[in-house]
Amino acid sequence: MFATYLQRGVAAGLVAGLGYAVYMIFVGNPLTEYVHDAGHAHDHGHGHGHDHGGHAHAVSETTMAIVSAGSAVLWAIFLGGLFAVALYLFEPALPGPEAIKPYVLAAAGFLTVSAVPWLVLPPAAPGAEHAYGIDVRLGLYVGLVAFGAITAITAVFAYNRSRQRGLGFVLSASVVPILAVVGLLALAAPTVTTHPDLSTDLVTAYQGLAVLSQAALWLLIAAAFVGLRRRGRNHSESVSQQSVGALSD
């Protein structure tokens, strides 16, 4: 059973990763390059430092596309495997019918891995200046992931404890822990990443797309897992019916 979950999770990650790789090639990489050029132009003025040779630039873009696409697929496969393990362990405790549970877990995964940590350590655009070194930021990220996991578990626990008291109360009880954490971190967290050479609107757009792309990745993993599980069951039922038919003949 565990092996089946893991295989489906990895396959779901691969499917989602291919979509994420396409996004990186056609949206993520061009946006990153645009932001980099915007910051470079702000630093040095127009007309300086942009003549690097057309061929070398094309090779650099191709290499970046290959590396980022491969990284996107590997990241999605890792998340898909992690998703499968978590679903195998915690599926009985997740709210909702079986077809909805993977989406609930995907939302919890996004909250844990991305949303909560990014309230303190937002996605850094090219040229970002960090208040702390890499070791401190890594430690903060790990701690915030743990905090996000606790928040997700608390929301699920509140939902399960109050599900007999009406839909409105249930939704309020499960959403309150998330809103409390988001509000607390948004107001109390120090500014540890700045972009002095970029406009606020450009940074906001860059970070917003990063958030949306990760949310879409989790959604794709959940949808692919549900589709693979349904396909596997249909195949098993078809094989069983064929076996029964063969025996009856």
Which regions are unreliable across 5 or more consecutive residues at pLDDT < 50?
46-52
Largest sheet: 2 strands, antiparallel
User: How many distinct folded domains?
Assistant: 1
Succession of helices and strands: HHHEHHEH
* Rounded Rg: 22 Å
- How does the overall form come out from the CA principal axes? flat
Provide the residue-averaged pLDDT: 88
Strand order across the largest sheet: 1-2
Structural class: mainly alpha
How many H/I helical runs? 6
Q: What percentage of amino acids are in beta strands?
A: under 5%
Approximately how much helix is present in the residues?
over 70%
Query: Total strand count, please?
Result: 2
Rounded to the nearest angstrom, the distance between the terminal CA atoms is 32 Å
Polypeptide structure, described:
- There is one protein chain.
- The protein is an all-alpha fold.
- It has one domain (2-248).
- It is built from six helices and two strands.
- It has helices spanning 2-44, 54-90, 101-120, 134-162, 167-188, 200-248; strands at residues 129-130, 193-194.
- A two-stranded antiparallel ribbon has the order 1-2.
- The longest helix is centred in the last third of the chain and has 49 residues, at 200-248.
